[in-house]
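Weekly structure sync, notes
Attendees: PL (lead), two postdocs, one rotation student
Agenda item 3: pending single-chain targets
PL asked that the sequence for the first pending target be pasted directly into the notes so everyone works from the same version. It is reproduced below exactly as submitted, 126 residues in total.
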Amino acid sequence: MASIRQEIRVAASAEKIWDAVRDVGEIHHRLVPGFVTDCRLEGDTRIVTFGNGIVARELIVDCDDAARRLAWSASGGRLTHHNASLQVIAEDATHSRLVWIADLTPHEMREPIDRKSTRLNSSHRD
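Predicted structure, written out during the meeting:
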């Protein structure tokens, strides 16, 4: 199993960022437009289409408003296991830190996923 952990500092309040993160069906408009090109909800599952055409089914495991943490698991594609979380942490009134953690198999998928998320994160840094 592989684990990926990334942090990104953004110039926006934790409340503003959390509002976009917790809007789980609108991430293609509010959180990561372009990286995600479409998203629709089916009960507790969101169907996500990524910019490269890959479609994933993501079960929303928990949306914790007090901790500002969203957790999900994904199925389909080349992964045999995937669970992830995104937590929004206030740094001050105008800056936040996002912590994304993903655990996945097969281990060989770590590098391509980490590389794509690093490019995405570098385009959104403060």
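Discussion points:
- Residues 18 and 68 are 6 Å apart (CA to CA).
- The helical segments are 14-21, 27-30, 110-124.
Action: rotation student to compare against the earlier draft before next sync.
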